[in-house]
Structures are given as C-alpha cells and as structure tokens.
Amino acid sequence: MIRRRLLAVAAAALFAGAAVPARAQKLVFVVRHAERADGGNGSMGADPPLSAAGEARASKLAAMLSASGIKAIVATEFKRTQDTAKPLAAELHLAIERGSSGDTAALVAKLKREHAGDIVLVVGHSNTLPDIIKGFGGPAIAIGDNDYDNLFIVVPATGALTRIKF
User: Fold this and answer.
1) Closest to 115 in 3D by CA, of 156, 76, 58, 150
2) Which of 53, 69, 83, 158 is deepest in the core (most CB within 10 A)?
3) How far apart are CA 52 and CA 150, in angstroms?
4) Quick one: pLDDT at residue 24?
5) Domains in the chain: how many in total?
6) Which pLDDT does position 148 carry in this prediction?
7) What is the dihedral of CA 117, 15, 71, 65, to 10 degrees?
8) Splitting the chain (166 residues) into consecutive groups of 10 residues, what average pLDDT does each group show?
C-alpha cells in the first residue's frame, strides 16, 4: 500500500516535470534518521548507532524507495543518518554523500548544484528537516523528538509536500 502510494506520488511529480525549472530536483525524499540505540537520552554520547528498531526502519525505507529512481543520497555526518541511508545506498549501488547538520542551507545548495534534475534522498534530524524541506520550496513543518516514522516527499517545482508514515 505504502509503496503504491509512493509510486503514485513519484509518477505525478515526474508528470509535472515539464514545469520543473532547469536547476530543480524532480523529487526530494526527506527522512529523519531512524531510532537511536540510546533512545535519544544521550547516554551513548553525541553519535550513537541505530537501535534494532532503527535498523529495521532503515531496511523498510530501502524496500520502499528501491524503485523510486533516486540518483543521489545525502546524509549528515552522524552514524545514525549514515546508517539509516546505508541499506538503500547498498541496494542502489550509490555512495552516501555527506552534508553538514550545522549548515542545512549549504546541504540544500549542494544538492541543487550537483544533482539538478535528479530524484534525491536526504537523511537528517528533527531540527534540520524543517529547513531542508523549506529549502526545496516546501511549507513549514514541525518534527517531534520522538517522530521517526515520517517520510516527506517534496516536489520543488510546486512546493507540494506529502507526508507518509512508515
């Protein structure tokens, strides 16, 4: 069901692609890293790995997006974002590009510059996703500290945003 909905959203975005500005992405998938092994309490330092639930969610994300046409994956410098992206990157034979969690404007600019016209995935954090989505023309959103199950799909040409729970 979720995969069919993703494909429908992707197809609609690609159909609207004729109106996409020359330097815009066709579609941007934005997701927060999966669940942390420390439950978010900081007991494992600033860079904890994923929990078992987080690893399962990363695998589910890979299954959902494996046929989406993604050409680039960007994740911040932390283990949890890198590990969330790894299953999909392995499936698609893509390197995970690094973006700075401290400079979302630079991350968005890098994608716009280096992957114009592509479908991309960005893996970030609860405090970076709102700026990333706005950077691609989407509306303002809020992400709770315990929200790990949101997949956002931004259509930069229109600013349309779809949120899918997974």
Assistant:
1) 156
2) 83
3) 18
4) 76
5) 1
6) 96
7) 150
8) 53 45 81 96 93 98 98 98 98 97 96 96 97 98 95 97 97
Tokens for 114, please give them.
Answer: 């280096």
Closest to 68 in 3D by CA, of 33, 23, 31, 101: 31
Structure tokens at 54: 């987080």
Q: What is the dihedral of CA 114, 35, 77, 106, to 10 degrees?
A: 40
Burial of residue 19 (CB within 10 Å: 0-12, 13-18, 19+) is exposed
pLDDT at 3: 54
Token output for 13: 């975005």
Give the closest residue to 57 by CA, choosing from 32, 40, 77: 32
Contact (CB, 8 A) for 75 and 84:
yes
CATH of the domain at 39: 3.40.50.1240
Any bridge partners for residue 32, and if so which? 124
> How far apart are alpha carbons 10 and 19 in whole angstroms?
15
Give the residue among 118, 119, 94, 124 at the shortest CA–CA distance from 106: 124
Domain span at 118: 2-165
The answer to whether the beta carbons of residues 101 and 39 sit under 8 Å apart is no
Q: What is the pLDDT of residue 1?
A: 57
